[in-house]
Design goal:
globular; 71% helix; mainly alpha; two-stranded antiparallel sheet; 285 residues
Length: 285
């Protein structure tokens, strides 16, 4: 009985810490508003987007998405010149997680306001990349790359580490669900099936390269994020798991390792254990 109480206390404490890291100080209030406000939503409770975006596999999928997104030189230039990802990485994570939660689970009016806010920010993000090309964050072509890199990462992470991986119909449904949000953000014609998603990623490959800014971001995200000492070992597992999910063609430009036997065994097992632990802790919240 005493041991059970102690385990529950540990579980609750870890869950609160994880939720606070991802959602920030306004997390409890945002959660109450997102889930407690009555009214229509963009997505019904049985939609695949809710299953994926509510699963602990998002922790490893999110880091993989950032690494993949960095391979587009213009998208990376916008992040390097306009994002405070080094000075405030957790604030950036919290804003992103709140946006995902609001558009996935929140009232339709709040979801639209979240999209409008992001579009307003995008209109102000513009500049010239180191290679001399101009960029604008509101460019539908760049928006599509960011979108497809993100949902490809979330989908793959859920298939490998999710509590209930989706069948083909569910995976197609997820891509179609996310197209609703992408269109609202300004993507002209987002993919709506898993096959279309794969085709779009292939179509972008000639544009991708490992710039100095992308490699610098990868080093920061994987090796030197500001973390307390107890969190460094678990984060190392998140980092290794995220890298192991990247295709070889995405790792080489970022100078990331490729170790198939190790990734198929120790990294996969460690990733499953860690994501399972995160899921166990967060379900107590």
């Amino acid at each position: 009985m005493v041991l059970a109480r102690e385990m529950n206390a540990i579980r609750s404490g870890v869950g609160r810490a994880l939720f606070g890291m991802v959602a920030g100080p306004e997390g409890p209030g945002n959660r109450a508003r997102i889930h407690g406000t009555p009214g229509p939503r963009w997505f019904a409770e049985d939609r695949p987007i809710r299953r994926i975006h509510g699963d602990a596999s998002m922790f490893v999928g999110g880091l993989r998405a950032l690494l993949l997104q960095s391979l587009h030189p213009l998208a990376m230039a916008g992040v390097a010149e306009h994002s405070d990802y080094r000075g405030d990485p957790w604030g950036r994570l919290q804003r992103t997680s709140t946006f995902l939660a609001m558009t996935t689970f929140g009232p339709a009016d709040d979801a639209q306001r979240a999209v409008d806010k992001v579009r307003g920010i995008h209109r102000r993000v513009r500049g010239v990349a180191p290679d001399g090309r101009p960029y604008e964050a509101s460019d539908p072509h760049l928006l599509e790359w960011v979108h497809i890199a993100e949902i490809d990462s979330f989908l793959l992470a859920h298939q490998l580490y999710g509590a209930n991986p989706l069948d083909q119909g569910g995976r197609d449904g997820y891509v179609a669900d996310t197209a609703r949000v992408a269109t609202a953000l300004g993507v002209a014609d987002p993919p709506r099936t898993e096959a279309e998603l794969r085709e779009r990623i292939q179509a972008y490959r000639p544009e991708l390269q490992g710039t100095a800014a992308a490699r610098d971001a990868a080093r920061f995200l994987l090796l030197t994020p500001p973390l307390p000492l107890p969190a460094r070992a678990p984060y190392g597992v998140v980092a290794a798991t995220s890298v192991a999910m990247l295709p070889v063609w995405a790792r080489l430009p970022l100078r990331l390792p490729y170790l198939p036997p190790l990734e198929a065994t120790a990294v996969r097992w460690s990733g499953r254990a860690l994501v399972g632990g995160i899921r166990w802790a967060l379900t107590a919240q």
